[in-house]
Structures are given as C-alpha cells and as structure tokens.
Automatic annotation (TrEMBL):
SUPFAM superfamilies: SP0830-like. It comes from the Bacteria. It comes from Arsenicicoccus piscis. This is DUF1697 domain-containing protein.
Amino acid sequence: MTGRVVLQWLMTTHVVLLRGINLGKTNRVPMARLRQVLTDAGCTRVRTLIASGNVVLDHPGKPDAVSALVHDAIADEWGLDIPALTRTAASLRKVLAHNPIDGADQDPKHYAVTFLSTPAPAATLEPLGLDADPSPFPGEHAVLTRGELYTWTPEGIHKSRLLRALGRLPALHGTARNWDTVRRLADLAEEGD
C-alpha cells in the first residue's frame, strides 16, 4: 500500500491535446479504448473530455515524455500518427489566468487558445500587421505568448480571415481549443487533487 501512495505522490497531472482525431470518419480513436490503452501504458486517473482529443491523466514524466508516450500508444494501437501536445495542469491554469484579450471570455465559443508545439517569438505575428490602423482583420484579435496563441473571432472560425492568415505562418504549429473547453479541461485536471 505504501508503494502506491508514494507513486501517486510522484505523479503530475497532465493535459494532453491530440491534433486531428475523430474528424468525421478520419483518424477514429474511441475514447473508452484510449483511456484503457493509456492506463495500460502506465498512466493513472485517465479521463477524456469530448471526443476531439482531450485527455487528462497522471504520469510521473515531463510533458514531452508524456506526449511521446501518448503518441506511441496511439500509433501502436491504431496505426495513426497523431501529434500530442502536453501541458501540466498548473501551466493550463496559467493559460486561463493570462487571458490577454479583455472581454473575449464572455463568448467562449469564439475565443480560442492554440497550444503551440514549440514556443514562437513575439515577432512571429508582425507580418500580419495586427497593430495597423485600420486593422486588416476588423474585430478580430490575436495575442501570442511564447507557448500559446490566443484568438478572438467574433464571427466564428469559419468566417475568420485572421485564422486563415495565421494558418499560413509556419512557426505556429499546434492545436486549438475554444475557451470553454480550456476551462473544462482545467476543472477536470483539478478533480481529485
């Protein structure tokens, strides 16, 4: 019994964001089976949120090691090459606390965070002219931190000229979640702490 208590004490709660799964019939990964596969791979308290690739789990490894473990487990089980980005529960809370776009969280479906696979310098957004007056993207906003890109698209992602422009910037590789999902993931990560 003591070994189990010590092991749980060494665990870190991680939030794993999978990119591009369960999009229609593409890259199908059933969440119940994923939870079992990750448990078998040595993770504990594995839980998922919606079927779009949001996993909260406990593991003693660093985020990069957890990303590799999840990527490899999915490749072994389903033969899919699915990028996995991992943040600790503590870093996810910081993402929520940062919230650099005033008032955007009032409409969380149009406010999103792109979690970047590698940090991007602040100058990455300069080619878009976001500080120009008038703005080339009226009503839309983007704020880049080193590891996340916050975006506000009041007309929705499908009509967003800003998101199309951002997608052409090679330094911004990652996966996005709307603000509501980020909040729900943070809540899920805190359960049982």
